[in-house]
Design the sequence.
């Protein structure tokens, strides 16, 4: 796993906010601006070769600010290891982050889900609309200020 | 020469497949754009079974989340709890006793056989082969009986607990599993004879829904779906959990062509491998406790609760307040029957998860339906939905 972290530290030293280890999981917290470049590097570099995106999880860390975050879990079939990337989105009112659909096609639905349930917008997404909730639904159910039993 | 102006005007047609349709395996609506019988675009409309499980979990203690997990992929109920328990145990930093690990593996593999049998029966049925369903359900029923024996629940055994199992195996359970294991390989021949070399079956599946290995990974495919494309990857072998490294099994890859037939061969062969693992569990099942010895996690034995005040308080605290994993974020994935089932779990140190993201294999696989079906015939989409082996409860959560 250190190979991926070392690669990021060499190529994008200014983008890394924090590297943490917990129970064997490595998480790299990044600044959101160059996320797509970083993902592309992690995928294309022959050493890391993260060709597989396991999932994208939208996060609402309310009441903390920045409130919204997005978590990416990558898997490398070459090394059989995982890497978690995390970005915090600066705007608490209209959270926006660049879409990684150009790197991994599977991101399409994961990003739609994060948009639907948490209201996080993905810039450059080809088809950003609700996926689990009906199209005319108001609000984003997984936000912490959304009541459990609806409004 | 016919000029453009005199040519008959053609336009595409929209067609609703579902939400109520026997071949959509639940409540799935696919909005199809057709040019004659050819599919121009397929847009799956999901969410009919969205129950907000991730949201509900944020208001429940970890143990109370488990009945909800059973209802993700309800054809493999205990596999979901397997992943969930492992994720909480990873947060807690505990490992369950060897006997519990082995029993979990046994249940997980029986569940895999049951899930694959259900897929085989319905997939065949969708494509006009009715007979395999009757044979497949014959054996699936035996696995349901085993689940019932162990806990009382058939689809939803709810037998696993955070830190181990609810109780040790009941008397008579192991001989019943032996009966199943010894006969299954022979029964498997019945399905194999019906379909594998069947000309009609091959016509409907060979070359249908082709995905290359690279595309499969790009679309996040895992499990049998990726293996059918020749991706030699199985989390049980490559990132072993719950003592899977102690079992011998092969990872079948079908014809590696990435078509529906190859995925059929993969799942067929996997059933035999699962049976092989169950046999190894039976042969090597260690003695010992089935719960981790940790008062933060495991309930004390009932007789101590009635006789000893400290145990009574401990019991009360775990039931009333729940367990409190330390602050942290973990991702735990298992090889569920349908592919990678992952749990991204965030704990803030309280007795309820701060956030639980469930990465269901069905959701990810279904997202590639449009790519697979473009340019194919309308009837092929039935084969495609069948080969994906989706459960809509797992898609919608």
Sequence:
């Amino acid at each position: 796993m250190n190979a991926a972290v070392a690669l990021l530290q060499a190529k994008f030293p200014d983008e890394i906010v924090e590297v943490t280890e917990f129970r064997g999981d490595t998480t790299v917290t990044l600044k959101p601006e160059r996320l797509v470049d970083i993902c592309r590097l992690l995928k294309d570099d022959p050493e890391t070769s993260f060709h597989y995106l396991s999932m994208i999880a939208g996060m609402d860390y309310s009441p903390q600010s920045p409130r919204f975050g997005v978590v990416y879990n990558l898997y490398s079939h070459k090394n059989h290891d995982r890497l978690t990337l995390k970005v915090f989105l600066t705007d608490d009112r209209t959270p926006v982050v660049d879409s990684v659909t150009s790197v991994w096609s599977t991101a399409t639905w994961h990003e739609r889900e994060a948009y639907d349930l948490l209201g996080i917008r993905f810039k450059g997404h080809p088809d950003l609309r609700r996926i689990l909730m009906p199209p005319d639904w108001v609000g984003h159910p997984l936000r912490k200020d959304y009541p459990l039993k609806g409004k | 020469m016919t000029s453009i102006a005199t040519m008959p005007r053609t336009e595409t047609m929209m067609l609703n497949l579902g939400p109520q349709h026997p071949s959509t395996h639940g409540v799935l609506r696919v909005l199809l754009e057709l040019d004659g019988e050819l599919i121009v675009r397929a847009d799956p409309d999901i969410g009919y079974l969205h129950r907000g499980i991730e949201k509900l979990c944020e208001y429940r203690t970890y143990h109370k989340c488990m009945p909800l997990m059973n209802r993700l992929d309800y054809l493999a109920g205990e596999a979901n709890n397997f992943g969930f328990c492992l994720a909480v145990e990873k947060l807690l930093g505990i490992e369950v006793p060897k006997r519990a690990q082995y029993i979990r593996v046994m249940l997980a593999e029986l569940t895999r056989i049951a899930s694959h049998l259900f897929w085989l029966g319905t997939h065949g049925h969708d494509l006009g082969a009715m007979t395999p369903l009757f044979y497949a359900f014959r054996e699936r029923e035996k696995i349901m009986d085993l689940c019932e024996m162990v806990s009382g629940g058939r689809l939803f055994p709810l037998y696993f607990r955070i830190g181990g199992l609810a109780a040790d195996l009941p008397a008579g359970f192991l001989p019943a599993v032996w009966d199943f294991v010894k006969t299954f390989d022979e029964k498997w021949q019945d399905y194999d004879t019906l379909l594998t070399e069947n000309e009609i079956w091959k016509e409907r599946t060979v070359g249908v829904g082709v995905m290359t290995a690279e595309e499969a990974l790009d679309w996040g495919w895992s499990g049998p779906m990726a293996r059918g494309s020749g991706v030699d990857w199985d989390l049980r072998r490559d990132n072993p959990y719950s003592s899977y490294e102690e079992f011998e099994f092969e990872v079948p890859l079908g014809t590696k062509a990435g078509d529906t037939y190859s995925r059929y061969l993969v799942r067929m062969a996997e059933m035999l491998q699962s049976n092989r693992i169950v046999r190894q569990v039976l042969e090597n099942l260690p003695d010992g406790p089935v719960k981790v010895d940790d008062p933060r996690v495991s309930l004390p034995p009932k007789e101590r609760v009635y006789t000893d005040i400290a145990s009574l308080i401990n019991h009360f605290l775990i039931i009333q307040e729940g367990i409190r994993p330390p602050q942290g974020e973990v991702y735990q994935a298992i090889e569920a029957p349908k592919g990678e089932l992952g749990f991204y779990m965030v704990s803030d140190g309280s007795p309820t998860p701060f956030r639980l993201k469930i990465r269901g294999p069905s959701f990810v696989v279904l997202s590639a339906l449009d790519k697979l079906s473009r340019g194919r015939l309308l009837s092929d989409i039935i084969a495609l939905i069948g080969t994906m082996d989706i459960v809509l409860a797992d898609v919608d959560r």
